[in-house]
Design brief:
Layout (H helix, E strand, L loop, with lengths): L7 E4 L3 E13 L2 E10 L5 E5 L3 H4 L2 E2 L3 H12 L9 H13 L3 H17 L4 H22 L3 H17 L6
Amino acid sequence: MNIQIGETLVYPHHGAVTITGLEHRSVKGTEKQFMTLRVHTSELTIQLPVENIDLVGVRDVIDAEGVQAVYAVVVEEFVEEPGNWSRRYKANQEKMASGSVYRVAEVVRDLWRRDQDRGVSAGEKRMLEKARQILTSELALAQNLSDEDAAERLVEVLASSLEQPTAVS
């Protein structure tokens, strides 16, 4: 991973971020390098010790193969998670916190399809919007598209998955 000002990365809970500053600070007598990250989808600024990048899950933006893999996850067959909505919600929170773009894509796929079929709770609707925002911001960067175009493309792929014939059990 390239740690320099202007580099764009992905922060698990916020999506695309850009490094806007690097500085050294003394923390409890130890010199540490910090980076300042600007979140693309909000006014949020994050300061993170460079040594904690892996711990937090900050990673590079996916490449073209990663984009295709995300779209493959989005069109995979819907697997209904057992249990009540609170268990589904917790499982989806864990997927979101993982930092994996593929796990976030699963959350988008499953909640979007559930919303199309019978609707989702207000909490799940907020989670769907957050997951879509995170996924869209990374897809936009990876494909050199605007957020709006990436969001439109994601919806097209999601909608195409409904048109595919499903296996009858």
